[in-house]
Amino acid sequence: MTPYPSNMDLLQKSYSYGTSPLTNSSSQPLHVYLFGASITQSLSPLIAHILFRALHAKWTYNLHQTTSPAEFTAKLNEETYIGGSITMPNKLTFMDCLDDITDEARVIGAVNTSFIRLDDARRRHIGTNTDCIGIWETIIHRNPDDRYTARGKPALVIGAGGAARSAVYALWTWFGASEIYVVNRLQSEVDTMITSFRSNIPDIKIRYIPSVEYLEGISMPYLIVGTIPDYPPKEEGEIRCWRITEAILKKQTGVLLDMCYMPSPVTTLLKMGKTYGWAVISGAEVLVQVCVAQQILWLEREAVPEAVEEALEAVRVRVEARL
């Protein structure tokens, strides 16, 4: 298990890719963009506004609904572009548009953030993954003791996409899970993910859970991270995935975090977890911590703690009113 992560360590590591492109630029009208599909209800602009305002940055956070690598590249080349947030379904497909990616992004195999560093005055767009640090920060912000409570116990990830890979990385690397179970509609997607991780982390233990019956005789997870869209299951694999998840939730209690927060931050998974007595955490809170890490990379300044709490409260109000 590697040392616990720090946002400021993340910033210092970013300079290995070049020098800063910023010179008192927080007073300039620069632009950050969110790239993704179905993002009109995203909470990111609200959170970014709170964080930028606290540091007196006159930057704007803009939604750019696209899945086109060409459109993404065009934005990267705009003079006023200073950074980007990359969400579904672009976390894997936009990687090739960037000049380089960090070690975390390479191991995870997905990016959710781009930032700029200079190499001989040339702008280089670097991709990284702050979803993993967002998961870490969110769980220990709620209960710092979970960094110890979760260690040496199995964990569960629901899904096998880009967000799931971030969850696997955080649970194994920082929470010290003994093994990571994965529930997903297709075993082939999990097999691909396992192969990718083992090429970078040979000793990682990831196990696909194929059925409810398979749960007999294995230890139940303490931490669960959901990463799948909150839509009613239709296909056989999707229905099986929900049945397995519910069977696990019934067996014991722990901490359940759902990365999904759209179209509503109150997901079916969170409601189910609360029904069975789990401590539930909305993906909207992860989004705040992700935005904090991104802002530190972009502005190169530590977030104002009061602004972080203001952003967390803003999203919690939206969640708890519906939960």
From TrEMBL:
What Pfam families does this protein map onto? Shikimate_dh_N
- InterPro entries linked to this entry: Aminoacid_DH-like_N_sf (IPR046346), NAD(P)-bd_dom_sf (IPR036291), Shikimate_DH-bd_N (IPR013708), Shikimate_DH_fam (IPR022893)
Can you provide one Gene Ontology molecular function annotated for this UniProt record?
shikimate 3-dehydrogenase (NADP+) activity
Highest rank taxon of the organism: Eukaryota
Q: Domain Shikimate dehydrogenase substrate binding N-terminal spans what residues?
A: 34-113
Q: Output one GO BP term.
A: chorismate biosynthetic process
Entry protein name: Shikimate dehydrogenase substrate binding N-terminal domain-containing protein
What's the source species' lineage? Eukaryota, Fungi, Dikarya, Ascomycota, Pezizomycotina
